[in-house]
Amino acid sequence: MEWALSFLLNNPEALKKAQNEIDTHLGESSRLLDESDLAQLPYLHGIINETLRLCPAAPLLVPHESSDEPNEFRPERFIDIKGQRDGFRLMPFGYGRRGCPGENLAMHVAGLALGSLIQCFEWERVSEELVDMTEGPGLTMPKAIPLLAKCRQRQNIDNLLAHL
User: Fold this and answer.
1) Of the four listed, 26, 47, 51, 161, which is most buried by Cβ atoms within 10 Å?
2) Annotated binding site, which residues?
3) How many CA atoms lie within 13 A of 153 on its CB side?
4) Which residues are annotated as a binding site for heme?
């Protein structure tokens, strides 16, 4: 979550696209994003997959290299994935017998949490400087400097929360 929000804060156009996708899908409904909506939000999935590509949760898998602008955050590269594996383009949880059994749960929780944060809040950096993306020491790739961001409730959320 921290890495995904950091990438979105450094790429405000991607954050805006994700907000527009969620707003378009939910329309003027008076409800929060739920699990049934996740399948209809390909850009949100692209953000999660791109984050996992750039910052895998456990960087212990076989080393790999992306040939198309590998250091650039581009969720669009995962928009047209067919099926779960799409020819093994992305395997952040491993594969086969050694794959993580919690992959589906992790992807659902990440989608719901990130989607809810995008739906409910306007996000911005605390300064004009880009968020520091330096990796810290550790097995799970923590950020060297924890994310610090500003958020405020989005205008359309007042009506939504009044109905809860």
Assistant:
1) 47
2) 100
3) 7
4) 100
